[in-house]
Amino acid sequence: MSGLAPDHLITPVVGSAARPAQSWRLTAGEEATAVAELRQAASAWVNLLTECAGLALGYGEQQFDAVRYRQITGL
Predict the structure, then answer these.
(1) Helix (H, G, I), strand (E, B), or coil: what is residue 43?
(2) Residues 6+ apart with CB under 8 A from 1
(3) How far is CA 24 from CA 16, 27, 32, in A?
(4) Using CA atoms, how far apart are residues 73 and 67, in angstroms rounded to an integer?
(5) Do 25 and 47 touch, CB atoms closer than 8 A?
(6) Residues 8-22, buried b or exposed e (16+ Cβ, 10 A)?
(7) 31, 19 contact by CB (below 8 A)
């Protein structure tokens, strides 16, 4: 089993978020860029998790343990 998400679905962290910090402090521009990149990556994960929850709920509706599937989607 290769895991829950194939590698092509994982949004790679690129740019300033992936680059190791040269110092402990970022400039305001670097920080804003890193935050924007992380928000973009997070939105991709939200979409993926929402799709998985919908699939589990849709599949589980007709199963004898439908309550379990509703609990899974609540996570």
Answers:
(1) helix
(2) none
(3) 14, 10, 15
(4) 10
(5) no
(6) eeeeeeeebbeeeee
(7) no
Q: What is the pLDDT of residues 20-64, one digit of tens each?
A: 655 578 888 888 999 999 888 888 888 888 888 888 888 888 888
At 52, list the tokens: 């998985």
pTM, entire model: 0.43
Identify the pLDDT of residue 10.
53
SS3 label, residue 41? helix
Query: Which residues, including other chains, have CB under 8 Å from residue 17's CB and lie 6 or more apart?
Result: 33, 34, 37, 38, 41
